[in-house]
Amino acid sequence: MITIHLKYEIDADKLEDFEEYGRRWVLLVNRFGGTHHGYFLPSEGDSDIAFALFSFPSLATYEQYRMDSMSDPECQEAFALARETRCIKRYERRFLRPLDGVPQPTVSG
Residue 102 and residue 38: Cα distance in Å, rounded? Predict the structure, then answer.
């Protein structure tokens, strides 16, 4: 499994536009076979930083999603929303993997 961590610098005055962008991508990532873990918006502290996390079963399936999203009309509309509203100033993308081999607690009952 591969998890993608996105850190966004957003325009705080365009938070509603960014929220709409996020709502669209949660549905799109899930439609393309990923698992979206959500968008995390400013609350306390920095008012212009947001995060998103989503996972795909493998790097190969993520790469297929990236290629397919370039020709998907709904993805193109989401890209256009961000471009036209300028709600995103910049973003950083990181690829993470889960720590394997961690013992899970047992539930007795």
Answer: 24
